[in-house]
Amino acid sequence: MALKLDGLSPKELETLIRDAQARMASARTTHVASVRSKIDGILKAEGLQLVDVYPIRGGKTGKRAGAGVPKYQNPANPSQTWTGHGKKPAWFLAALKKPGTTEASLQIGGRAPTAKAVPRKIAKRAKKKVAK
Questions:
Q1: Taking the chain (132 residues) in consecutive chunks of 10 residues, what is each chunk's mean pLDDT?
Q2: pTM value surpassing 0.70
Q3: Residue 112 lies in a domain
Q4: Residue 58 within any structural domain of the chain
Q5: Where are the alpha helices (DSSP H) in the chain?
């Protein structure tokens, strides 16, 4: 099927592209459903499950350890949490703009660094310099 694109206006080309993309998405969905039904039929005929044919490697599901555990909480709305992975949520960025708010202060359980942590770090650096 050949289309003459030379005489089309930009609006007509955009419409054509949009229609083609919609048709492509529909065709892909239909194709995936067809392949899935064929695979299901083969598995059922053989008395197998997908896990039997494609076992999970090493028993791992592919998720990072602790990926779903929330690490930060919105002080204004405790139901809003963030794991620390991925894009920072809007409430997190807005909270950081407030004076005196740090990432550590937004951690769940008040895991803000203690006052002792800073001097230890400085003391360690001083020891290294003296040793040289």
A1: 83 93 95 94 91 73 66 87 90 90 84 50 64 62
A2: no
A3: yes
A4: no
A5: 10-46, 50-53, 90-97, 117-131
Q: How, if at all, do strands 72-73 and 81-82 pair?
A: antiparallel
Task: Map residue 5 onto helix, strand or coil.
Answer: coil
52 contacts 39 by C-beta, under 8 angstroms: no
Long-range CB pairs of 100-107 (<8 Å, 24+ gap) are: 103/72, 106/72, 106/73, 106/74, 106/75, 107/71, 107/72, 107/73
Burial of 20 (0-12, 13-18, 19+ CB in 10 A): exposed
41 φ, ψ (degrees, to nearest 5): -65, -45
Domain ranges, residue 97:
87-131
Asked, for residue 27, whether it belongs to a domain, the answer is yes
Q: Which amino acid is at 39?
A: I
Number of structural domains the chain divides into = 2
Residue that the structure tokens 């007509």 belong to: 12
